[in-house]
Design a protein that fits this description.
The protein has 117 residues and is α+β, with helices and mostly antiparallel strands. A five-stranded mixed beta sheet has the order 1-3-4-5-2. 22% of the residues lie in helices and 32% in strands. Strand 3 and strand 4 form a beta hairpin.
Amino acid sequence: MKQEKEFEMRLAAKPFEKIKNGSKTIELRLYDEKRQKISTNDIIVFTNTSTKERIKTRVIRLHIYESFKELYEKLPLEKCGYIEGNIRSDSYKDMLEYYPKEMQSEYKVVGIELERI
């Protein structure tokens, strides 16, 4: 069995709290060189950028798509940190603030499905 790897990622306070309390189980990222090294069963330690608090999670599954638009059409957005009723048909555009379309085209995107450990 392959050795699990451990990754460090930073998160803003709101998504950090949602992962901590279990309401967010899918973290959305660009599928760049760093994320391409992540596999199922690997460990991700998230650090709250405000408080420096840390939580440990295990990767259950990787959901890889061409764009956030496609990802948002396929995955349950409640698991991605959205609150039912706050989901719009163009919610995927929220991710353009972090990852422009050019970057999405170059790398693809990933929904990292997690469980707290």
